[in-house]
Design brief:
Blueprint lengths: L10 H15 L6 H14 L4 H16 L3 H14 L1 H13 L1 H7 L9
């Protein structure tokens, strides 16, 4: 059964998501492949509308939430090299996401009953 409100994502947005997913999954240090991924991610931003940039920042925020703290730091550093404004937007989104508050707190929190 289909959704009553289908999610309509532009092709440009989908390309940006794929570019940033590939960039964040690359765990090698700066090599030619990583540089190409970074360039693809950066170029993908220019085709997005303002609202799509906000949606991408939120999506990237969720990507950071599910990472370990060390991987979050690496991911945010990668984002800052691609686009500082996007990195700032992701930082703002992290303050709004509920699980981000849990994962950023220093005290362990029980998530199950």
């Amino acid at each position: 059964m289909g959704s009553a409100y289908p999610l309509a994502l532009s092709e440009s947005y989908k390309q940006a998501q794929r570019a940033f997913a590939a960039l964040l999954e690359n765990d090698t240090d700066f090599d030619l492949h990583a540089d190409m991924q970074q360039l693809a991610a950066e170029r993908s931003l220019y085709r997005l509308s303002r609202s799509e940039l906000g949606t991408l920042a939120r999506w990237l925020g969720w990507q950071m939430v599910v990472r370990t703290r060390a991987a979050q730091r690496v991911g945010m550093n990668v984002l800052s090299t691609v686009n500082a404004r996007l990195e700032s937007a992701v930082e703002r989104e992290l303050t709004r996401l509920p699980l981000a508050q849990i994962t950023r707190s220093s005290a362990p929190m029980r998530l199950s009953a």
